[in-house]
Batch of 3 targets.
Target 1
Amino acid sequence: MRNDSRQDQLIRAVNPEVLRRAAEIIRMLGHPGRLKIVEVLEHGEASVGTIQEAVGLKQAIVSQHLAKMRAAGILEARRDGQNVYYSVIEPKVGHILQCIRSCDM
């Protein structure tokens, strides 16, 4: 019984907006292709072509994933001539990737 009370306290202690944002990020990263993309971008920006080559997906699919993550505020884009470069702007992404790497799966 005491353990349930502790869990209730923890849940109530987290700001509902923080929980909503965390759920949105987790949902967005819950796709293997998107995880591969943010892993490519983890240490800096990359062009769509570079991302596509690194993850081995078709350009149209990569572009769709990038657009969804950009709309969710996880990535930002920078245009340089004909090239578009993406980078991660959501700090929680790095923490999530580290968590995945450190899990015993």
Note: The first helix runs from residue 2 to 13.
Target 2
Amino acid sequence: MKDLTKGSIKKNLRGLTLSFVLTSVISMGTGLIDSFWLGRLVGKDAFAAMSIAQTVWQIFMIVLIGLITGGSILIAQYFGAKEYKKISDVVTNMSVITVVLSIILIGTVQIFDKDILYLIQAPYPIWPQTLLLLRLYSYIIFVFYINFLIIILFRTAGDAKTPIRFTIIGLIGNFCLDPIFIHWWGISGAILATFASVCVATVYGIIIFKKKSQFEVKIRFQDLSLTISKKLFIVGFPNILDTLFFSFGMAATQIVVNHFGVDVVAAYGIGSRIDSILLLLGNNVGGAMGVIVGQNRGAKKDKRVLVALHHGMRLGVILTLIASVLGFIFAPYLCMIFVTSKVVIAIGTQYIRIISIFYLFLTVFMVFMSFLNAVGDTKASMVISAIATWGGRLPCAIIFSIFLGYSGIVLGIGVSWIFAMVLGLWYIKSRRWEKVRII
């Protein structure tokens, strides 16, 4: 555990970013391994089904993601303020609420799964596979929450290195189990292999946390606090709405993509995954910066908060420029990792080469939003993201696709990122966030 309210911000940011990136690469490897084996062993229909199922499930995960994000903001600020008992209270309230929400989400998916696929106009030939994946995802949601919670606890306490160890365990387990489970159970084997590996990694993470933590975290019902729950709601609810608006925007974009057929759906899924890889460096700068900002905000050291923002922007720009060039050059080879279909590879290559031109604008925007969330101004982050998605991304994707076809969707998304960055810059410059205090 590390106190980030003192020492070199630049040095801490670089160290945290590197650890964040390594952890994210390893965690992402689990999904990439699933995609690799599905594309190779089962085919492009299975890959397209996985793409749609993951997009839909992200919508149902928004409440939990918003809750965890709100909790992580409080945890970072309480750590900076040295109020360790409050951290345990936050975790207790988060966990109890998550159990209830998980049950509700499972029931919703089981009852309305076919209606969901009809609503998003998923290609009918892959309905059976997509339905199976949606149902399996619903059963394992709580395990992913616990895993993410352990990572958040380490990160917000300034220790981003330890999560690398137990995420490696999960990656190795998934790599070994995926081909075996997919061979035995087909497309559902990918989810089952992920579930088993994440369970093992999570248990190991809990053991390490108990040994290393300088504060105790106990989940006890008698520690349920109306005050903490209210703060979680105030900070987390805008994050829930933020993720909701974004996820529905992604789903709406998916509907536009679905009209172009299975090949384009598969290529879009591949492109989205490669996006997440190439944007990994820049996006993790925002996460690392957010931890530093959160701790210093909790310690009421606002000068260090602004210094962290400036260093975060610079580092994010440099890393994203490198990723953009690499993506543009190696686009076809990246697509070949996932599928063998020449048509899908050609469409995916076009996607990456267009969208990589705009990566820089998205990274700067994400750094801005990470900053606003870390200081506790989640309402502003929500409003800006909603405007950027529904006033920028979706309209641009639809309008551009009318004139340019599938490539117009990609171009429209890129143009919307410029709009989002400008909007975020305007709010940061207004300094309205300085008036927001959550602890």
Note: DSSP finds 16 helices and no strands in the chain.
Target 3
Amino acid sequence: MLRHLGTAALCLGLAAAAYAATVVFWRDPATDVYQRWRQHQLSAQLARSFAAERAAAARIEAVVRARSEPAAGLSALQAAARAYRARVELGAPLGRLVVPRLGLDVVVVHGIRWGADLSRAPGHYPETPLPGAGGTAAVAGHRTTFGAPFRHIDRLRPGDTITFVVPYARLVYRVGGHRIVDSHDWSVIAPQGFDALVLTACHPLWSSRQRWVVTGRLVRAELASGAVLEGAALSERGPRRAKSASSAGAPAASSSRAAPRRRL
């Protein structure tokens, strides 16, 4: 009897050690399964909402262009982003984030609540504007649990691309660099004078003491209508420059308040 109990205890100990090693050197397999299931649900929800939202974005763009405003393409992009922001609810799927360097293609939700949002997907900071709105859009993600989408965020290098696909546009950002900040430093989401995308995750692994922050700048926007904005067309001071997606070969708030530490 004692021999059997000893064998069972040894097996349980080995299983626990193997699980712990998997969590440390890879990621938590239990929460990984949960996140994959929720991502499947979110993908279906996002697909259903895209058709209606794309039509709304196209209507907004047509209205803006009809006014013959300078930089009409940029104005249309920002107007569509603001309109979508007014409709999207906390916890709802917002868009899709694609990061080739990390092998990442994941749905992003609106919100950064630990259980309700980040357990299912990377989350958009609700304090920040949406991508393409002209400010700094920020997204947080886990590094060790719930799929660990940002586990290797430290591998991103200047020049890498990050694509954020939302109903009103396909937005391509080019990474400019990274920095490590205190977990209570909210200056990372402050306006930077250009359309920026910021990715944040806890640093070091298994600690919420600091944040690893990657910043990218918008370099290309493919609008719902098929128009493409690049270069000077993405600057409010630059001349208007828009071209069709087919001709381009493209596919048809600053705050100093402290935030609670959350392990990502």
Note: The helical segments are 2-25, 29-66, 72-87, 245-248.
